[in-house]
């Protein structure tokens, strides 16, 4: 065991920090204090045995993200909770939504955290830590569906174990221009279908119209509710919850919308993979990595909970676009990915990339 790492995950609705141990012989994260005779192998990498601390979500205003303040609060909370361990932390991995909106230099921010904590520190957009968590640090493409949507791909560690600056992202353009398949996108599409029913254009959205009216009131009031609010993406994503309930109740219009979201997510993942795994073959979507290994593709994020229709369509569309794609279940969450990033930082095995990852 060569030391400890700290992982920090900062999202729009909450934040978390966890502590884990580095096992040099295994080349992987282990659990501080875990009994290896009683903890199943499948669970050992998922337990933050010193506990996981939680905090508020990030907010973004005219001056950018308040992620730096949240990071400091979480590190301070960790120091108070685990005072006997924090001096042994060798690496810190941070994934934060909205971090790229900072007006200050994020590289300087990462270096200041490293100096304060006396530990190598890597700060990344939240899609990076979602990727590292979902694919357990290996290469592949991941689409993250939450309120927004972004796909990101990376070939994985090179022969020396380095995470090189070759991250490729697709979408993540926000609810006005993109975020295809995300919660806000899905909510907006559902309201469009509901309004078509309201206007007598297409009656198939009747149950969506009923659900939307229950949540938002008379459709005549919707423009004023949405167009004047700076949190409309979250408001739209709330309706995705109602849509998921209608899918479970058997509404075909809602089910088709959810399936469409799955297909959009798959298209983004394959497009990201295509860029990260270049090929000179004419079948450019037949992507391989590591000899005969297929391209690993995963869907992660809170919207996965919307139902099997989303996940099934993601799988079907990904395999339709690339016969060599292997759709896998997420191995872990973004907090797990932050710990993985921390382990790479601790051993000097990660390189910065503008707009994506800073050190």
UniProtKB/TrEMBL annotation:
InterPro entries: ATPase_BadF (IPR002731), ATPase_NBD (IPR043129), Euk-type_GlcNAc_Kinase (IPR052519)
Record-annotated membrane-spanning stretches: none
SUPFAM superfamilies according to UniProt: Actin-like ATPase domain
Alphabetical list of Pfam families matching this protein: BcrAD_BadFG
Residue ranges of domain ATPase BadF/BadG/BcrA/BcrD type in the record: 6-318
Segment forming the signal sequence: none
PANTHER family in alphabetical order: N-ACETYL-D-GLUCOSAMINE KINASE (PTHR43190)
Official protein name in the record: BadF-type ATPase
Organism name: Brevibacterium aurantiacum
């Amino acid at each position: 065991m060569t030391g400890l790492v700290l992982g920090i995950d900062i999202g729009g609705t909450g934040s978390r920090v966890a502590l884990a141990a580095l096992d040099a012989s295994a080349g992987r994260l282990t659990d501080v204090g875990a009994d290896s005779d009683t903890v199943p192998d499948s669970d050992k990498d998922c337990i933050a045995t010193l506990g996981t601390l939680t905090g508020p979500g990030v907010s973004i205003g005219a001056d950018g993200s308040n992620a730096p303040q949240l990071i400091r609060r979480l590190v301070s909370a960790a120091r108070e909770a685990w005072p006997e361990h924090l001096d042994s932390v060798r690496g810190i991995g941070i994934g934060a939504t909205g971090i790229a909106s900072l007006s200050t230099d994020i590289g300087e921010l990462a270096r200041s955290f490293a100096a304060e904590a006396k530990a190598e520190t890597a700060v990344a957009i939240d899609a990076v830590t979602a990727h590292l968590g979902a694919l357990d640090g290996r290469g592949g493409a991941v689409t993250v569906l939450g309120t927004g949507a972004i796909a990101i791909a990376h070939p994985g560690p090179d022969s020396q174990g380095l995470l090189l600056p070759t991250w490729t992202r697709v979408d993540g353009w926000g609810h006005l221009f993109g975020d295809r398949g995300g919660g806000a996108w899905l909510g907006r599409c559902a309201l469009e279908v509901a309004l078509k029913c309201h206007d007598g254009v297409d009656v198939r959205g009747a149950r969506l119209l009923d659900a939307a009216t229950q949540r938002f009131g008379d459709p005549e009031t919707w423009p004023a509710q949405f167009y004047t609010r700076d949190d409309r993406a979250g408001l739209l994503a709330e309706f995705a919850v109602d849509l998921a309930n209608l899918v479970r109740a058997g509404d075909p219009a809602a089910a088709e919308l959810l399936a469409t979201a799955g297909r959009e997510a798959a298209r983004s993942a394959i497009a990201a993979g295509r860029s990260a795994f270049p090929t000179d073959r004419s079948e450019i979507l037949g992507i391989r990595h590591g000899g005969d290994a297929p391209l690993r593709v995963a869907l992660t994020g809170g919207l996965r909970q919307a139902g099997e229709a989303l996940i099934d369509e993601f799988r079907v569309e990904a395999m339709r676009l690339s016969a060599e794609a292997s759709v896998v279940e997420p191995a872990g969450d973004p907090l797990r990915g932050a710990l993985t990033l921390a382990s790479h930082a601790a051993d000097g095995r990660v390189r910065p990339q503008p707009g994506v990852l800073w050190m």
